[in-house]
Amino acid sequence: MLMPNLRPSPISPTVDFDADGVQHGFLRLPYSRDDSAWGSVMIPVCVIRNGEGPTALLTGGNHGDEYEGPLALYDLARTLDPKDVSGTVIIVPAMNYPAFRAGTRTSPIDKGNMNRSFPGRPDGTVTEKIADYFQRHLLPRADIVLDFHSGGRTLDFLPFCAAHVLPDKEQEQKAFAAVAAFSAPYSMRMIEIDTVGMYDTAAEEMGKVFVTTELGGGGTSRAETVRIARRGTLNVLRHAGIVSGAVEKTPTRWLDMPSGDCFSFAEDDGLIETMIDLGESVEAGQVVARIHSVGRTGGAPQEIRATMSGVLAARHFPGLVKAGDCAAVLAVVE
Ligand SMILES: [Zn+2]
């Protein structure tokens, strides 16, 4: 176990998180490089505060190729009136800003995956420095955290809002109440392949109410998934008592990921044929996807069979897969 490194963060915010009103500014991170000797990475941040009350921390662009969060959050930063707020809303629409500008999941500077970089390091890579700032400066301010994801270039998801099963059942119940308020078409009790280094885990270990989403994918967004993101953001803020007005509840279908058996992986390179579409039902043993060899004709495809009965919650997006790619994710209807 490393000793905690208490060196200060190199990031300077150009906003005052304790000032009332609307502020549009930056988290300025010095980044010396060939084309800018004393340059900085300028991560956009907006703070909307109106007096005492709870604080919501809203983030998009944790992965740079996922767009519903940034679309909803740039929009919210432009339109939310502090008169309608009680407390503080901190908006970072593009958390891994270098990755977001490059349109890639990870940072082009250091290949850092923001959601595997927590708790970060003040003396680490650019991505680790951003993570460290969230870990030590932004997360501690928050009562509720909403972090937007979708599938990015390589996955496509059913539109869902999610929280994790947690050891602290009171904290877990608060997170699922916020998921219900978000009112996505699907609500997920989610498990992760690999929780080490996740922003989710960092927030949850601090006892925060943490809510996330998967709202589509393919390296783009759709009109419907952006509408879901906009409505869900306001609903979570209303639920938290930060924005006035009633939660606009719409029907949701609860899904559960009971174990790691939900995930299926390609065992060979090839051409993927998904045999059912997102949201369609599947019985245990049914073929969910086939992977066809392309090097020569005549070979039998690799069949990926459902390990449980449920619905298809996510699928590989591009037509070609490599061995080890996540091919499909199943979820059980509650
Ligand atoms: Zn993501």
Automatic annotation (TrEMBL):
This is Ectoine utilization protein EutE. Residues 53-239 form the Succinylglutamate desuccinylase/Aspartoacylase catalytic domain. It comes from Mesorhizobium alhagi CCNWXJ12-2. It comes from the Bacteria. Pfam families: AstE_AspA_cat. GO terms for molecular function: hydrolase activity, acting on carbon-nitrogen (but not peptide) bonds, in linear amides; hydrolase activity, acting on ester bonds; metal ion binding. InterPro entries: AstE_AspA_cat, DoeB, N-alpha-Ac-DABA-like, N-alpha-Ac-DABA_deacetylase. SUPFAM superfamilies: Zn-dependent exopeptidases. NCBIfam families: ectoine_eutE (TIGR02994). Keywords: Hydrolase, Metal-binding, Zinc. Its cofactor is Zn(2+).
